[in-house]
Amino acid sequence: MDHLTELENKSIYIIRESYNQFDKIAALWSVGKDSTTLIWLCMKAFFGQVPFPVVYIDTSFHFQEMYDFRDYCVDRWDLDLIVARNDQALAAGMGPENKLECCTALKTQALKDCIAQYGFEALLLGIRRDEHGIRAKERYFSPRDQKFQWDYENQPPELWDQYSARADEETHIRVHPLLHWREVDIWRYIQREGLEVVPLYFAADGMRYRSLGCQSCCAPVASEAATVDEIIAEIETSSIAERAGRAQDKEDAYTMQKLRALGYM
Amino acid sequence: MQPESLSFVLVGHVDHGKSTLIGRLLHDTNSLPDGKMEEIQEAARAEGRELEFGYIVDHLREERERGVTIDTAQTFFSSDTRDYVIIDAPGHKQFIKNMITGASQAEAAVLICSAAEGVQEQTRRHAYVIHMLGLDQVLVLYNKMDMVDYSEERFREVRRELREFLARLGIRPTLEVPISASRGDNVATRSLNMPWYDGPTALTALDKFRKIPPATEKALRFPVQDVYHVDGVELTAGRVESGILRKGQTLRFMPGGRALAVKEIRQYLSEGLPQAEAGECVGLALDGDAPRRGRVGCPADDAPQPTRRFQATIFWLSPLPFEPDRGELTFKCATQEEPCRIAALRRRIDSGTLESLDAEDGRLMETEVGEVLLETDEPVVLESFYDVQELGRFVLLRGHDVVAGGIVTHTAGDAAPAHHETIS
């Protein structure tokens, strides 16, 4: 079994376990390459259908290309889309001037409200261990308490594909089927499966986005990679961090950690 | 072309140099992103500390403050021949469940031991866990050789002590390398400080680990994970844990033994597969009602006898001890789940020394190992861990919490354990 097939099977097993164990489950979909791969893996796990909703957290500051791609996929894959948006904060003028506050209001709070509204017990997320130091510590099934907090010092043991189901005091479990994938694996898989991605990943005028989010907080990196093949070649030789263009990783050394402690993805 | 990828767990006593070794490996194999080293230097300066290679992996604030690794983290790097995933396991006794979580995902183990301090409690405990999890590829690194003046005599002394202990567990190290992770001796490049050593570097030694192939050679075992209805067809979903599943074959779903023929093997966009091998997730169209989750599909002529009583070795992971009078547990093996109890605690072992402890009151404390007789409410399908790992390893839950990990040493309750299953 080749490396990508091994990664794929492990992910499908985890996706099926989570669907078996939780009645109220949804996938979080940012339309980025990772969560789009996650949705595709769900399609494969359930033989061509995603039997639960996909949640798109809309900060309203995303690139137009992301909204277009979202609607295109929803139509093509017949997805049950839920848009989570913190209209109250937006009406009060929340914007990216203060990044920590903005992310917390427009992403974390929007997600909290959405979970409360639909009563989700579990959420599938497309995070990977190699993305960010703190994500390297995640489990496949990761409980969040009532305050949405992640007690990473006292995580449940996880052995041999036995994942801990919901415990009473938790609000929900985050499930991470792509945890063991690396950035280059995602691109190789996109290539193998012939998946489409948001065009912003491909170079135009010598720049491309390597990681997508809000227009205000994402910077492109210098690149000539205009095809999936060229992106793979670039990652194999590059030593620039994937999230180098993401502002929330940069503010200070602990921004990502603070965000996550507050319930960020 | 996708390069091969191998994962290994890095274990050893606290402060014997795990984080430093990872930092060194990342640095010496050019696996750090641009700017990372500068960022780390900056952070070290801000905190008024000297730059150490261990900083590279200390991503969490808590870890920086305490200077110890608290959870399993995974790091990636590449040698000239393949990609590696380092599963970094914490060296403190209190984080043993994290260490076991990490080790259970590895294909090989690297045991690091300070040549200055010698064999310590967690060196022994981690070696025990490696042994128990069936990791038989073990590279031993004798670190901090710079602190013992690169002395061959000291290296031999510590090696003798550790070899004696490992031999009691039946572990024979794949290779043993004297290194200094902080100075870089024998990590990725040969050391000029130890002319008496002519073996491989740590990196070359890693390249000698074998990839573990999926269990296709073993008897077919297909635990049912779920049942889906797709376009009017009932599909029995699951992963082939061992062996090869073939279209047209008749499977016996145990316990119960209902025989059903495999009409079709499916994956999305690949219907009508001729076969599925160990490790593959598939859906089966069967010629009868789908069996429920937890049933295990086996070849009709090679189905194991389900059992309610069996022998196992368990590692207690919970800070709350096991107490016989509140003994209700749940047994989980593959997709099987059954209420169970410990019918007898035959031996209680200190995993840090391998000494037998008083088992009279039937209690087991955190990090202790028990050789037990387990009893489930209904029969389950098991294999000895030494035959088919996938159906010979399990967890025990109390309520919702995983409180122990274990391996099946004998599928019958009354047979005498084979000699390699107990520690001499």
Notable characteristics:
heterodimer; A: 265 residues; alpha/beta; Rossmann fold; 2 domains; six-stranded mixed sheet; two-stranded antiparallel sheet; 8 helices; 37% helix; B: 424 residues; alpha+beta; Elongation Factor Tu (Ef-tu), domain 3; 3 domains; six-stranded antiparallel beta barrel; 21 strands; 17% helix
Structure description:
- The complex is a heterodimer of chains A (265) and B (424).
- Chain A is built from eight helices and eight strands.
- Chain A is α/β, with parallel strands linked by helices and 265 residues long.
- Chain A has two domains: 188 residues, HUPs (Rossmann fold), CATH 3.40.50.620; 51 residues, no CATH class.
- The radius of gyration of chain A is 18 Å and the shape is globular.
- Chain B is globular and about 70 Å long.
- Classes of the chains: A alpha/beta (265), B alpha+beta (424).
In terms of topology, how is this protein built?
The complex is a heterodimer of chains A (265) and B (424).
Chain A: H1 3-21, E1 25-28, H2 33-45, E2 54-57, H3 64-77, E3 81-84, H4 87-91, H5 99-118, E4 122-124, E5 141-145, E6 170-175, H6 183-193, E7 207-208, E8 221-222, H7 228-237, H8 255-261
Parallel strand pairs in A: 1-2, 1-4, 2-3, 4-6
Antiparallel strand pairs in A: 5-6, 7-8
Chain B: E1 5-12, H1 18-28, H2 36-46, H3 61-66, E2 73-78, E3 83-88, H4 96-103, E4 108-114, H5 121-132, E5 138-143, H6 152-169, E6 175-178, H7 202-206, E7 222-230, E8 233-239, E9 244-246, E10 250-254, E11 258-266, E12 275-277, E13 281-286, E14 296-299, E15 307-316, E16 329-333, E17 336-350, E18 356-357, E19 368-380, E20 393-398, E21 401-410
Helix pairs in contact in B: 5-6
